[in-house]
């Protein structure tokens, strides 16, 4: 199972997984070249909508799973199968019981060509988050890095995540690249956590002079803070 995701974060991730396809309410186009189907049949569409409502509106993963099992008992076209795989992944994330299963559902949907290129890029990031929850840092780093390679544009917090996860996976050089970008985004007023992480990474990568300069800059900032009115309460 792994480390349980916090309720709000689990919900955000589940919604992100479902929003990839916008199956019922999007345009009637094929999800990928390998799938020629363009939508749901009438009966399967109603069951899928009931499943999605059970999960997102009623916050009832167990009921959503029951509807999914109804769908799986029938014959699905490729469009429907792609939707079921994503909803199955979202149910597993929301229930917090099977992150590995959610990863497998998403990987299957990609492998079978049920996602557009843009959706597959976003899915790399979602899979990385699930691996992080399982403390599978090498796999998480691989998917995060792949997300960037395929065109993902990280914001400041995602750059920090890339730095931390790459370091946890044993790749200090890549972690340093992202940590430096975080420091550039934050500027000299960056949190001490950022300074300390950079100092550590410079040491790990044999850049002792850079580590010493940054440590000196941090110490000077501490000295200014301690000598200002109010001491440690002022920055």
What does this protein structure show overall?
The chain is an all-alpha fold and 235 residues long. The protein contains eleven helices and no strands. α1 runs antiparallel to α4, α5 runs antiparallel to α6 and α7 (137-149) packs across α8. The radius of gyration is 22 Å and the shape is elongated.
Query: In angstroms, what separates the terminal alpha carbons?
Result: 42 Å
Percent helix range: 55-70%
Assembly of the depicted chains: single chain
Could you describe the largest sheet, including whether it forms a barrel?
Answer: none
> Per DSSP, what share of the residues sits in E-state strands of 2 or more residues?
under 5%
Task: List the keywords.
mainly alpha; 0% strand; 11 helices
Would you spell out the secondary-structure blueprint of this structure?
Elements: H1 7-19, H2 42-56, H3 61-73, H4 78-95, H5 99-111, H6 117-133, H7 137-149, H8 156-168, H9 172-186, H10 192-204, H11 208-227
Helix pairs in contact: 1-4, 2-3, 2-4, 3-4, 4-5, 5-6, 6-7, 7-8, 8-9, 9-10, 10-11
């Amino acid at each position: 199972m792994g480390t349980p995701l916090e309720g709000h974060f689990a919900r955000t991730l589940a919604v992100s997984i479902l929003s990839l396809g916008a199956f019922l309410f999007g345009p009637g186009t094929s999800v990928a070249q390998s799938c020629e189907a363009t939508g749901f049949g009438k009966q399967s569409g109603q069951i899928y909508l009931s499943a999605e409502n059970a999960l997102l509106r009623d916050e009832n993963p167990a009921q959503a799973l029951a509807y999914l099992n109804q769908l799986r008992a029938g014959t699905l076209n490729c469009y429907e199968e792609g939707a079921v795989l994503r909803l199955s992944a979202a149910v597993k994330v929301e229930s917090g019981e099977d992150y590995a299963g959610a990863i497998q559902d998403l990987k299957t949907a990609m492998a079978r060509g049920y996602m557009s290129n843009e959706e597959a890029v976003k899915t790399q990031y979602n899979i990385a988050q699930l691996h992080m929850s399982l403390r599978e840092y090498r796999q998480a780093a691989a998917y995060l890095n792949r997300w960037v390679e395929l065109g993902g544009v990280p914001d400041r917090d995602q750059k920090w995540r890339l730095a931390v996860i790459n370091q946890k996976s044993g790749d200090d050089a890549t972690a340093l690249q992202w940590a430096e970008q975080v420091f550039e985004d934050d500027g000299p007023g960056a949190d001490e956590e950022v300074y300390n992480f950079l100092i550590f990474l410079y040491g790990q990568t044999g850049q002792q002079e850079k580590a010493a300069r940054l440590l000196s800059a941090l110490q000077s900032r501490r000295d200014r803070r301690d000598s200002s009115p109010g001491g440690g309460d002022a920055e």
